């Protein structure tokens, strides 16, 4: 299997590649993707994979990608939408936090990052299904869930780590955590003997998103589907309608969004480039290859990177996109070949 080795640094170019819509659609590897990765590996061009996707650990995703792309993909060079959240573990290490997801997978991922008190909406829903009585958890959704007493918990943060499988349920829980009395799923104070009191207004919890893509490409469907950004817009609209008149604060002011095109994610990517590949931003030309003008290209442009926009994902038109890339290309292989030619990488 192909494996990247550091190359002669005389040709200083490095690439960041999106995954969904660039290298793959679901489990289907797109035409030219394997050859594109092969080119980079054989010519020892530093590259990372930079995606807003999630769902599994970096190690598991890298292992699967290695098999699909027939090249060794290091988890240290793979950045998912939530990966930069590792730094939040210092702030919230001992804080109770609530995360979307129903089978415990997200809970384990955050605990591996260093968060100690992680709860899922499934665990709270099992404790009291009347909190959101409009949908029922399936048996398989509760396999890894713990039994809890929600009255004893005051949450300090709410995390959206990937697209929701139940918008209504997840938005209801987010509103409960983010609205007065702040942090409590049930209205009013926790029962007597609880270790914590509801949060004061100045200590309102934070709402974190691993990404905010409005649209996301989906295997077998020609039109992109609504992504986590659609949940974010919907939740902000509902919350502000309910609480802005009385609190004077909009939900966006309590929200932190990771993933592309956020500045935090591109700064984190620059750190990974330097740590794993010796790529320093002021010495290299860094390219982003992506399929979403409002996400991949916008973030690259803001970060001072070059960018190539492919037509195999969200962007499939010939009209000018909202964010203009350095290059328009049909697919990832054409992007890699043109970029290497521009930098005289033979």
From TrEMBL:
The keyword Ribonucleoprotein does not apply. GO terms for molecular function: phosphatase activity. InterPro entries: HAD-like_sf, HAD-SF_hydro_IIA, HAD-SF_hydro_IIA_CECR5, HAD_sf. Pfam families: Hydrolase_6, Hydrolase_like. PANTHER family: 4-NITROPHENYLPHOSPHATASE-RELATED, FI11325P-RELATED. Keywords: Hydrolase. GO terms for cellular component: cytoplasm. This is HAD-superfamily hydrolase. SUPFAM superfamilies: HAD-like.
